[in-house]
Amino acid sequence: MRSQSRQNGDDRNYDAEVGLQKDSAVQTEHVVNGHISSEEAAFLASFSDEQRKRVLRKIDWRLVPMLLILYLISFIDRANIGNAKIEGLLPDLNMTGTQYNIALAIFFIPYTLAEVPSNAILNLFDRPSLFMGGIVTLWGLVMMCHGFVHNFAELCGVRILLGLFEAGFFPGAILIISKWYMPHESQTRIAIFFTASAIAGAFSGLLAFGIAKMDGTAGYEGWRWIFILEGIASVLAGIACFWLLVDTPKHSSRWLTPDEIRYLELRQTAAGRFKPKGHKEKAFDWRIFWSVISDWKIYLLILMFWSNVTPNYGLKFTMPQIIKNMGYTSSNAQLLTIPCYTVGAVAAYGFSVISDHFKWRMPTIVFPQLCVVTAYAILCAKAADIQNNIPACYFAICLACFGLYPIGPGVQAWNMNNLAGPAKRAMGIGWMTGVGNMGGITGSFIFIEKEAPTYPTGFGASLGFAAGGVAAALLLEFLLWSINKKNDKLSEEDVHAQFSEEDLDRMGDKSPLFKYTL
């Protein structure tokens, strides 16, 4: 527990990059707390900075690109219904605008409910690639089925199944990253694969533009081919996942040396992020689950996540239509979504690099949120006469994407950094992501068809959620700073006089020795 608390903080006796004290006193400390032996601590201390950078580069090239591709496919599959809509989905299925909103929202019910149990199950898998490959293949098959629906009820059925199978991917990817990287290394990697959600918007528009040209092929409408072909791509990616998604260090001997594997495992154990060898995780620990759902911090993070999820899904599902309302054709509207999403992808990565460099999460969440507030304020003011305010409105959409996409990686990293222990981290990631994604239900309903092109409900609600996210971020920053300041007044001797090592381990991030990331 002591190493976990120090690793999250800025203690001068600790290596800021590795999270280990360099003096011999701490090497023996690990023997006392039972995490690693003095010999293992000496091995970690001897691992050079160049060696560390080399092994991280290997992981970056092996793990992150595959997660990016899978998340790209995931986001395309859940959001391509917006592209299908402007290609004739509603009239072909005899659906109303309200039914379309219901079809969007119903995806999020199983999606949110399944995320915690899914992550708890994934945490037990020795080879995550088997679990992840399975769910990707299944949702690809469901996506193909979207192309064969004939009415509103059938569309709702496949959307429910899609939400169920996609539920495990995003929190699972965050969990996998947490098992390979230390907290101060995490946000940049999360952002790299999170940019896939922005790239997906751009790529989805480009794909839809091309696939829609197949209208009439084999007797199927163009929007059906969007679902069918993108579903086939997902199935192929799921099958590839079984071989290409890296599992854990101990299963990576083909591309990691024995010393690199040992280093990666020991640094996690030393920091309290892995349990010592011989520890058995329960399939579902109700005590830990209760500690997650009763943790006040996670609900402020959920409010911040909603400031991204609700406006983001609302905009993603409606952006092609908003741009079409400016007077563009369906094809050109699809293409004009690409620059907006490109801006979002660049911003997500850029803000995350800054956040990891300074090891400070709050500013790189609040500034993007303020950009979102500004963007929707412009749209609220100008959308009533959108065809005469195209430059301002299109700029506002780009600014909204610039602000929305950095928020998710920042909130996920902040949450992950402040959860102690692998079991609580797995459940905490799943709980925040699951409850946070309920914002997608709201986002599915805020853009009302009959309110086009002004969309006062959609633009106004998005502005409100972003403003609420700013307040939540500033409040959490102040509260965590206050707790850290209070705990800094306690000496380690006083804490150990009051609590045993077992007590401190059980307390997790509530231990007075734990230092919260701000």
From TrEMBL:
Keywords assigned by UniProt, alphabetized: Membrane, Transmembrane, Transmembrane helix, Transport
A molecular function GO annotation: transmembrane transporter activity
Limits of the Major facilitator superfamily (MFS) profile domain: 63-485
TM ranges: 61-81, 101-122, 129-149, 161-178, 190-211, 223-246, 288-306, 335-354, 390-408, 429-448, 460-481
Membrane topology: Multi-pass membrane protein
PROSITE patterns from the UniProt entry: MFS (PS50850)
GO cellular component entries: membrane
Major location category of this protein: membrane
Pfam families xref list: MFS_1
Localization annotation: Membrane
Highest taxon, organism lineage: Eukaryota
Listed name of the protein: Major facilitator superfamily (MFS) profile domain-containing protein
Lineage: Eukaryota, Fungi, Dikarya, Ascomycota, Pezizomycotina
